[in-house]
Design a protein that fits this description.
about 350 residues, alpha/beta, Rossmann fold, five-stranded mixed sheet, binds iron/sulfur cluster
């Protein structure tokens, strides 16, 4: 009860705030629509809780228009506040009452049928070893990324078990759709899968999977008994340990920091270390590191309004293009696919181009 009161006070504070964080909010910046700014969202959530809104459908649609990127919490004047928690609660209520956008509904239905948001069954299970490489539903279709991963792993000489593919998903698309029962089932299925693999560590390309399979599972009382690592951390460690031979070549690279990797997982230094070790010179867009801007599809779940998502993506593409680098790189398979117009690469692809056999 006291906890509820504290939460109500927090969102009340936000609803009355000067809203300066809106200048970091990608949906507000891309559209200039005041209702999409964090403070206005908070105000509408408070009004909705008090039963003061006439148009409930408009309100619920709006809750699916946040990218849930976390930029507002990063720039918030309060340390202990994250508006995304309240937006997520509103999505859960929307889901329970069946009032979710059509696109989101379709994704949930596909997930229920196939166990992943892509509607395919292409399980991968190969190799053996104490390190697992989970190929997420966001990376298994990316042949360039898979090829680069195989090359990098084979040069490292480590014994690795690959699993996942089109068959398994961490459940994040259900969580962010507000389907908490479905998410719980997906997390337990993943736990059972991970237990059978008997590995001590799992490396994952997708920042959303990393956050979901650690923090979000823990909130649901599901604990995976393994160390989970993002690929950028893994490669950084391999390079530091001298397990990968590198042939350096001078070119300029612009890094797009994925918001989950830099805001939520605080891992923006890992891709930078890799880029420096490969001999590239790094060009930073104006918004980078923990000030990054979202590509429009945070958590692998695009904003529930495709025109809004396209506006956010187009803004980010312009920010990146203005650096005029030779190569554009990121550390999230979803960002890579959403920003494909500038021939975005995943960080492993950059490593695979430079890796040589160790003598
Ligand atoms: S998220 Fe923080 S800074 Fe932004 S409007 Fe709310 S309280 Fe103010
Ligand atoms: S989570 Fe991102 S898109 Fe949503 S209100 Fe905050 S800054 Fe804006």
């Amino acid at each position: 009860m006291a906890e509820d009161k504290k939460e109500t006070e927090k969102i009340g504070r936000c609803a009355m705030c000067a809203d300066m964080c809106k200048y970091s909010c990608p949906t507000y910046l891309a559209t200039g629509r005041e209702t999409l700014s964090p403070q206005k969202m908070a105000r509408l959530i408070v009004y909705h809780e008090k039963g003061l809104l006439e148009d409930r459908k408009d309100f619920l649609d709006l809750m699916f228009q946040s990218a849930l990127c976390g930029a507002c919490s990063r720039h918030c004047i309060y340390d202990d506040y994250d508006l995304r928690r309240f937006i997520h609660k509103a999505r859960v209520k929307a889901f329970e009452s069946g009032a979710i956008p059509e696109d989101v509904k379709k994704r949930v239905e596909t997930f229920r049928k196939f166990g992943n948001p892509n509607g395919e069954r292409k399980p991968i299970d190969k190799g053996a070893g104490d390190i697992g490489y989970f190929i997420s539903c966001s990376s298994y279709k990316d042949e360039d990324l898979l090829r680069a991963t195989e090359k990098m792993l084979s040069k490292s000489g480590l014994a690795i078990r690959r699993f996942g593919g089109g068959d398994m998903c961490c459940g994040a698309p259900l969580y962010y759709a507000g389907d908490m029962e479905g998410f719980k089932r997906a997390s337990l299925k993943m736990k059972a899968e991970v237990d059978t693999k008997q590995v001590g560590k799992i490396v994952i390309d997708c920042p959303t999977c990393v956050k979901t399979m650690t923090e979000t599972y823990r909130d649901m009382w599901v604990e995976l008994d393994v160390e989970i690592m993002h690929t950028a951390q893994f490669i950084e460690t391999l390079l530091k340990q001298g397990k990968l031979g590198i042939k350096k070549k001078k070119r300029t690279v612009t890094l797009h920091d994925p918001c989950i990797l830099s805001y939520d997982l605080a891992l923006s230094s890992a891709p930078r270390e890799i880029i420096a070790t490969l001999g590239f010179s790094l060009k930073e867009p104006v918004y980078s590191g923990d000030q990054t801007h979202c590509c429009g599809a945070a958590y692998g779940a695009k904003i529930g309004d495709h025109r809004l998502k396209d506006a956010v993506t187009s803004r980010r593409l312009n920010e990146l293009r203005s650096t005029a680098a030779d190569i554009y790189v990121t550390a999230c398979p979803t960002c890579k696919s959403v920003l494909s117009e500038i021939n975005m690469k995943y960080i492993t692809e950059l490593v695979a181009e430079r890796v040589i056999a160790k003598r």
